[in-house]
Amino acid sequence: MKFRFKALGLHLSGSACALSLILGALYLGWYSWPGWALTDVTHVVVVMVAVDVVVGPLLTFVIAHPGKPRRELVRDISIIVAVQLCALIYGTVSLWNGRPLYYAYSETVLQLVQAYDIDAQESAAGRRLNPDFAPHWYSLPRWIWAPLPQDPKVSEKIVASAIGGGYDVISMPRFFKPWESGLAALRAQLKKVDDQKYFSARDKKTLKERMQAAGLRTDQLNTIPLTGRGHPLLAVFDLTDLKMIAIFRTD
After folding, report:
1. What are phi and psi of 102, to 5 degrees?
2. Is the pTM of the predicted complex or chain greater than 0.85?
3. Residues with Cβ within 8 Å of residue 216, at least 6 apart in sequence
C-alpha cells in the first residue's frame, strides 16, 4: 500500500503542477476578471481537472503494485499519461482558441470578443487596414470601440449579417477605434439598473444591493451590460470622467 500511495503522490504532484502552470498562464494573461466569468468555459476546466488530477492519479494508484514487472508498470502508467495529455491538450487548445481579445463597446452594450469570433480573413484585413487594433497571437485583452462604419451600405450589410447569425462589427478589427473615442456615444447608452433589459428582476435586486454595498448610487444613468457567452455582467461608470469603476455579477 505504501508503494501505491507513493505512486499516487508523484503522479498527482506532476499532474497538478502541469495543469496549474497552464491554467495560471491563461488566467493571468487572458482570462482575468471579467474574462473568466464571460467566457463560460467552466465545463472545459472541469474536464481538464477531472482527467488530469483525479482520474489519472487514481488509475495509477489502482495499477501500481510493487510485485508488477517494471516494464508492465511503465507501460500502464504511460497509457494513463497519454490519455491525460490528450485531455490537457484538448482543454488548452479550447481555452486558447476562446481567449478574450477585446472588450468592445458597440451600439448599446459592452461585449466580449474572443479569439474564435475573428476569422483569419478579418484578422488579415485588420492587420492591413487598421494595424494598431489588429489581433496577434500574443495580443492581450484590451478595451476598444467598435462602431458601425459610416458608409450606409457597408453598415446595412453588417447589421444584416449579425441578424442572420453571421459576423458582427465586433468581429471586424478593421473598424475598431480607441476606447476613448467612443465614450461620448457610450454615455448616451448608460441607464439605471432598473432599466436594463438584460437582467431579471431578481438580478437587478442583487445588483442594486451590491452597488449600494460598494457605495455606488443606483438611481443614476451610470450602468451598461457587459455581455459574453456566460451570464451578463453590469459595468458601472463614474459620470464625471466616464471611467469604469466597477463590474458586478449576479451570481
Report:
1. -140, 150
2. yes
3. 222, 236, 245, 246
